[in-house]
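As a warm-up, study this chain.
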Amino acid sequence: MNRHQQRLKLMVAIYQYLLLNKDINDVAEDIKTDDMSINEYFYDILATIYDNEETLINMIDDKLSDWNYHRLGYIEQAILLLGSVEIIFMHYDKAIVIDEAVLMAKEYCDDETYKLINGVLDKL
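Now compare it with the structure written out below.
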């Protein structure tokens, strides 16, 4: 499974966590696969979101113009949390993270949402 596919599965996991108020460990268990590299990536991202959720939300909120994190849909929140963790805590290449986030937004969100995702992540 390539990194893009991993990110898609992870976006769904974060979405479940946000929408259902599901325990982060249960979300991780539901996604568990036999591929340990996937599990390591998932666990690292999910644990970092769980440990730093309020900080991430505040950072995202600061970058939203005339908008509020909590007014965003859960898919948008999931994409922004995933992207912000990869940029801020995992130190992945910002351009790649933003490109992946924009692709997810174009596929799963409203038509113009990718611009908001791009703008917020670019400002982090």
